[in-house]
């Protein structure tokens, strides 16, 4: 069905969205997006997310790494900033690049981009590098 025909029909999802001002038809949608983006940047500051900091990706505590990038990634759908993580183990989805554009350096499958709310910075040791007190008892 041509777009013009669909747009002119009264009982469609498009007509419903228009009449109820939902999604792109909401006159306040741009302000809402700006608020969401501003909140994401505040979250980054409040959580002290910065390049070079050790982190863990929630909800798991086994995906650890180092923050390698904080900023916009236009190649990924969605609005607002992303956090690029260089993982300790090959549990990622990329090598620090997206759609051919490099944001940070790491080996293939050691990089991942996540939203700030999934990052918890702290004194996280590298996986496999934790001190094991039991070994010290058996010298």
Secondary structure elements and pairings:
Elements: H1 3-8, H2 13-20, H3 29-46, E1 54-57, E2 64-72, E3 81-87, E4 97-98, E5 101-102, E6 111-114, E7 119-121, H4 133-136
Antiparallel strand pairs: 1-2, 1-7, 2-3, 3-6, 4-5
Short description:
The chain has 139 residues and is an alpha+beta fold.
Q: Which structural class should the secondary elements be placed in?
A: alpha+beta
| Helix content, binned percent | 25-40%
Beta-strand content: 15-25%
Order of helices and strands: HHHEEEEEEEH
Low-confidence stretches: none
Envelope shape: elongated
- Average pLDDT confidence is 88
Strand arrangement within the widest β-sheet reads: 6-3-2-1-7
Describe it for me?
Helix content is 26%, strand content 22%. The protein has four helices and seven strands, in the order H-H-H-E-E-E-E-E-E-E-H. It has a five-stranded antiparallel β-sheet with strand order 6-3-2-1-7. The chain has a two-stranded antiparallel sheet with strand order 4-5. Strand 1 and strand 2 form a beta hairpin. It is elongated and about 65 Å long. The model has no long low-confidence stretch (mean pLDDT 88).
Keyword list:
22% strand, elongated
């Amino acid at each position: 069905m041509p777009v013009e025909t669909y747009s002119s029909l009264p009982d469609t999802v498009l007509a419903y969205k228009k009449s109820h001002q939902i999604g792109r038809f909401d006159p306040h949608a741009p302000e809402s997006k700006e608020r969401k983006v501003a909140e994401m940047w505040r979250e980054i500051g409040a959580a002290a997310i910065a390049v070079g900091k050790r982190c863990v990706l929630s909800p798991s505590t086994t995906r650890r790494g180092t923050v390698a990038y904080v900023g916009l990634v236009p190649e990924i759908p969605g609005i607002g900033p992303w956090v690029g993580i260089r993982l300790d183990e090959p549990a990622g989805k990329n090598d620090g690049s997206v759609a051919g554009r490099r944001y940070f350096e790491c080996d293939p499958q050691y990089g991942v981009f996540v939203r700030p709310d999934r990052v918890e910075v702290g004194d996280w040791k590298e996986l496999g590098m934790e001190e094991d007190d039991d070994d010290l008892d058996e010298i």
